[in-house]
Structure formats: structure tokens, C-alpha cells
From TrEMBL, chain A:
Protein name as catalogued: ABC transporter ATP-binding protein
Pfam families, per database record: ABC_tran
Source species: Azospirillum lipoferum
Organism placement in taxonomy: Bacteria, Pseudomonadati, Pseudomonadota, Alphaproteobacteria, Rhodospirillales
Keyword Protease tagged: no
Family from the record: Belongs to the ABC transporter superfamily.
Keyword list, A-Z: ATP-binding, Nucleotide-binding, Transport
Domain ABC transporter: 26-257
Single annotated GO MF: ATP hydrolysis activity
Organism domain of life: Bacteria
Keyword Nucleotide-binding: yes
UniProtKB/TrEMBL annotation, chain B:
Lineage of the organism: Bacteria, Pseudomonadati, Pseudomonadota, Alphaproteobacteria, Rhodospirillales
Organism: Azospirillum lipoferum
Name the UniProt record assigns to this protein: ABC transporter permease
Family stated for the protein in its record: Belongs to the binding-protein-dependent transport system permease family.
Presence of keyword GTP-binding: no
Localisation: Cell membrane
Single GO biological process annotation from the record: transmembrane transport
Amino acid sequence: MPAAQPAPLTLVPPAAEPAPRTIVDIRNLTLTYQAADHPVYALSDVSLSISKGDFISLIGPSGCGKTTLMRVVADLEQPTSGEVTVNGMTPEQARLKRAYGYVFQAPALYPWRTVERNVMLPLEIMGLPKAERQQRAREQLELVGLAGFERKFPWQLSGGMQQRVSIARALAFAPDLLLMDEPFGALDEITRDHLNLQLTRLWLSTRKTCIFVTHSIAEAVFLSTRIVVMSPRPGRILDVIDCDRDLPRERTLDIRESPEFQRIAHRVRDGLMEGHSYDD
Amino acid sequence: MNRPNMAPPTMAPWPLVMLAAPLLPFATLDGTALYLPQIPAALALFALSVATILARRLPGSALGEALLLLAGVAAAYATPLVLLTQGHALAQAGGLWLSVAGTTLLLWRVLALLADVAGPVRLAGPALFGLALVMLWEILTRGFQVPTILLPPPSLVLTAFAANAADLWDDFRQTVLISVLRGYLIGCGAGFLVAILADRVPFLARGLLPLGNLASAVPVVGIAPIMVMWFGFDWQSKAAVIVVMTFFPMLINTLAGLQSAERIQLDLMRSYGAGYWRTLAMLRLPCALPFLFNGLKINSTLALIGAIVAEFFGTPVVGMGFRISTQVARMNLDVVWATIAVAALTGSLLYGALALAERHVTAWHPSFRKR
């Protein structure tokens, strides 16, 4: 029986897991902009390092800069000071190399394109041949459970389905990094649970690095390997919680009843309290 | 609204005013008032109208009822024409006009019935409405002997149309196919291209938009003679007037359209590393399409007006504006009306074609989409 014998030699020694490669490195990031009468500190001295395969949730109240932080990573916003590297490049280089897929708060589908052609949009921009575009779009739509909806128009789909199309679109060109800005914020809880489950399966099977902005504590704990708790005015990081130690990688919805889950959720809530998020 | 399983709504009682018609004279002949029983043809047609009302339930379907009542309406509208050919005068024929009024109300019901019928028959409604207007125009102008200088009956306009078909075709070719088409294409094209430029160069937009307001306030009768002096009598001056009239509506609409793409959609293109031109082609122009069509539709009517007015101020001896101005001077109002009919038809067809193209191209837009 194998249990009684010494472990057979394997090619990769189990103890020596290779040091996780850093995908996103944020150092002393500050972003201020000038409002009508006073400067607004959207982000203040934020440092964060995200490794390959991580699922990072940014959680915090409105105005804590979590979306801004992600937009800086995506080169949709320019920092005032500090350094950001994505795959060892500047955010702009990374954007031009299409290193990330971005899922917005709204599906942002183009109403004049069918579902399939919406998913093909980034592929068209990359100049892939038509047959390959079509094949990849089909694959991605199947992955998010929308096979058979290729020829529909976005406005013929429900809100949850539209957001799944936008995820398929972000996955279509196979970026290593997936940035998601409250993608399920506008959906009802049942749809949201369902999509959370699909997303965690997707993440397990594709091994993408994900940054996920959310308002929901349960969602953050359920999905993440690490949770970054942020507080507003100025936007800063209060706490970084490691979920991977206590929760298994493969998760089902009932994990939310477990004491480990509750403990992490409690810690997130404590962090938010500490940042006086409930004061106003 | 589709109401397939509902019985057709009951008929309003108003068409029954025609039952009072026999009490009043139906025509006058050499100064004597004649009543219904004295004119066999009128009596027969009147009886037919009344019979269709009484028998309207017999066909058992909305379409059948509509067709039956339509026959009644046609009979009533035919009566004055028949009486006129028999030499009767109709100006004091109270009974006749009462029956025409009653059947016109009956036509209302026919149109309401047709509107509820599914399928291509629905399209017959608007056509019948237009036809009825023309018929009433014919009956009233001839029945009351309106001077043809004021308003010729449509039959006379049609005769003039046939008699002058060659001239009208030449006018159409000169005004529409040469002046309007070229002016419209140049004006709209320039407005579109300058809008794209102005969108990239903000100071250009800021400088041009006030000028656009100014240009839209300039009366066409003011610029037209100037353009004729600048560009001569032929199509060039007409095209120039059209360019002045259509340039700014197109510019303003295109600019508004280019700005209609949402922030989030633009961010998406940026996240794909798409540059200016690609974003323009794949996002901003499709977003602008409804606005572009708006501009094109407004301009299609403006262009025709511009060309016709400009032709008043000088043209080779051909063109719709030339025809109107010379035939008015000769009191040939039937030819003027025929020209007006050609212009109206052309304008409607242009507009209709654009509207159809818009429906096809922007079927995704909320104003057209069907689930």
C-alpha cells in the first residue's frame, strides 16, 4: 500500500513549490485630484503585491478608492505618485499588450453586435482570423454557460446573462489577469450566488490572476485567496486577510455556513469598522 | 394593438346622419331643386350606401365588414361625380352633402377596422385615407365650382401632369437628379467630415458651432441670389445653396452623435489598446448612426426646398422652381400644382427611403428593437 511505503519520487518535489511570480506590484501609490475647492485624496500610499494565481478582493465602502486602484492598474487612471508594474511592465505597456481583461460594473456590451460578435470584439481588434475568433467566442460562451445564445442581441438577455457575456468577452483573448469591478453589483442575490459559484469554478479551471472589487463581505470571502480591506478619505489599505489557509480552494456555497468562513467575514467587518466605515 | 379574439367594436351612430339626407334637395337642375326620388342614379347609389350599413354584420369578419362599408363609401363619393356629368348643379344640394359627410364618418369606421386587421392589409389604411382626401378634394372643388386659379381639382392636376410629362421629367432631372443630389451629397459629406475633424480639434468645434447657429438663421431667399451671382445659372449655384443649408445640421448632428458613446464603452476600447481610428470605427460611429440619420433626414427636405427656391433667382429654362415661377405668372395653376405634387412626392420618397435605411441599419436602437 502506498501509505506504508516511502513516497515515490516525483518530478516536482512537493515541499519546494516555486516562489509565486508577482503579477501586479503596487508601491506607495498616491492619487489626488483637485475638486472645486480642495484636493481629494483618492488613494494614499497604497502598497500591494499580487502573485500569479491569486484571487484578490478589494472591499470597502464607497469612495475608498478600490475602483480607482484597479483603474490605475488598468491604465485607465494616472497616479499622482508611486509605482505600479503589471507583468513587470508599466500599466500602459501592459494595456497595449492586452495583458488584462476588464469586467466593468455594467456589461458595456455593444447593442449593434450579437452576443457572439461582442465576445469577438477584442479578438477583432487583435486581428485574429475569423474562424479562430468564432471558435474562441463559442468556447468562452460555453464556459460561462451561454452556449446557444450566440445569435441573440444583448438587449434580448437578462442582466445576469449580459454580465456573463462581458466576462466571456474579457476571457476571450486569454489574458493572464482579470480585473473585475463589482461585476455582480447590480444583480439580485440568487443570480449573484450562481455567478459567484461559476466564477470560482472558472478561476479554478483557468488559473487566472483576479482582482475583484466588491461591496459584499460574503462575496469577498467566498471568492478570494486574499481580501484587501480599504477605508476612505484618504483611500488606504487597512488590512490584508489571507483566506487560503483556512478555506479550501475548491468552494461550494455551503462553505458560507462554516466557522472558518464566519471568522474571516468577522475580521473583514472588524476591519471595515476600524476604518469608521459605519460612522456615516 | 392586436385584438384577434375580440368582436369588432360596435359602430358609433354618427354615420346615420345620412338618413336625414332624403329630406333635403340632392341637386339643382336649371334652378329647380330636385329630391332623391327624382334622380334615379342618385337614389340607387344612396340605397347602396344604406344597404351596406344594414348588411355590415353579414360577412362575419372585420376585413369583410370593412370591404362592404368601403363599397358604401365609394357609392356615396361617386354620386356627386355622376350628378355633375348629368349636368346638375350641386352648390345648394344639402341632402347630397349630408350623405357625403355621413359616409365620410363611415370611412372612419372602415379605417379603424382595417387598423385591427393583421398582416399587410393594415397598410391599406393610410393609402385609403390619402385616397379619400383626394376624392373629397375633387368632389368639393367641382361641386362648389371653386375657381381653378384658387384650387384646381385633382383630376385637372392629373391632366396637366400627363400633358406636361416631358417638361416635368426634365424639371425633375435638373432639380432633383442634378442639383439636389450633388448639393446634398457635398453638404452632408462635408458636414460629416468637418464634424470628425472638429471632434478631434476642440477649438474648431467651439468656433464652428456659433457659426452654425448663424448660418441656420440666414434666410434661403437671402443667400440664393448671391449664390446665383457667384456660381452662375446652372446647378452649381443650387448645389451651393443646398451646401449652405445642409452643412451645419449635419455637422451638429454628427458631433452630438460622436459624443454619445458612453464612458464605460470608451474605457473598454482603451483597455483593449484600441487607438483613435479603431475606436471611431468600431464604437463611436455606430453609436452616432441614429444621429447621422437624423441629420440626413432633416437635410433631405431642406435640400429640395433650397434647390427650388434658388431656381427662382436664375436657372437655365428648366427646373421645378423655374416651372413654378413661370407658370404662376401665366396663371397655369394646374401645372404649378403638378410640379408641387412631383416635389412633394420626391421629398416623401427621399425621406421614406432614408427612414427605411435607418430602420435597417439601426435595428438595435431602443426606438426600433423588437424582442
